[in-house]
TrEMBL record:
Recorded GO MF terms: imidazoleglycerol-phosphate dehydratase activity
Domain of life assignment: Eukaryota
Protein name (database record): Imidazoleglycerol-phosphate dehydratase
Keyword terms, alphabetized: Amino-acid biosynthesis, Histidine biosynthesis, Lyase
Pathway noted in the entry: Amino-acid biosynthesis; L-histidine biosynthesis; L-histidine from 5-phospho-alpha-D-ribose 1-diphosphate: step 6/9
GO biological process, alphabetically ordered: L-histidine biosynthetic process
Organism: Rickenella mellea
Reactions it catalyzes: D-erythro-1-(imidazol-4-yl)glycerol 3-phosphate = 3-(imidazol-4-yl)-2-oxopropyl phosphate + H2O
Upper taxonomic lineage: Eukaryota, Fungi, Dikarya, Basidiomycota, Agaricomycotina
InterPro entries: IGPD_sf (IPR038494), ImidazoleglycerolP_deHydtase (IPR000807), ImidazoleglycerP_deHydtase_CS (IPR020565), Ribosomal_Su5_D2-typ_SF (IPR020568)
Similarity comment text for this entry: Belongs to the imidazoleglycerol-phosphate dehydratase family.
The EC number(s) this enzyme carries: 4.2.1.19
Coiled coil: none
EC top class named in words: lyase
Length: 155
């Protein structure tokens, strides 16, 4: 899923993670998302000259997802993924919303991710990550200016 996020978000990403998977996948999923969010925030630096808001829609076969991001400095996350299976591969599906939440908290962004339709949980999850990637790509697009994208002048 992180590969899809990086590829479709136009990002270069290398992650190495070693977790306590003999217990469960919670800490590994959470900590990798926190690290990714922290790296994202650091890479953005001072938020100037970007669009700030982004939306993305991504299909994967029968699944369709929508993601909306606000690079606001106000971390918040809402997800409606409708996952039914217990696991996708070795990942507990309950961790997928937690990954989005952890990323949003660490990155300091407001994030809404919804799966609009789909039957296959893998397709639903992957389309959600791809939709987020497209939203991020749009939000970080340069505007050509150097202004802070806020009516208050600060984020």
């Amino acid at each position: 899923m992180y590969n899809a996020l990086a590829k479709h978000g136009g990002m270069s990403l290398t992650m190495k993670c070693r977790g306590d998977l003999w217990i469960d996948d919670h800490h590994t999923a959470e900590d990798s998302a926190l690290a990714l969010g922290t790296a994202f925030k650091k890479a953005l630096g001072e938020v100037r000259g970007i669009k700030r808001y982004g939306t993305g829609h991504a299909p994967l076969d029968e699944a369709l997802s929508r993601a909306v991001i606000d690079i606001s400095g106000r971390p918040f996350c809402v997800t409606e993924l409708g996952l039914k299976r217990e696991k996708i591969g070795d990942l507990s599906t309950e961790m997928i919303p937690h990954v989005f939440h952890s990323f949003a908290m660490a990155a300091g962004v407001t994030l809404h991710v919804d799966v609009l339709r789909g039957e296959n949980d893998h397709h639903r999850a992957e389309s959600a990550f791809k939709a987020l990637a497209l939203a991020i790509r749009q939000a970080i697009e340069r505007t050509g200016g150097d202004d802070v994208p806020s009516t208050k002048g600060v984020l």
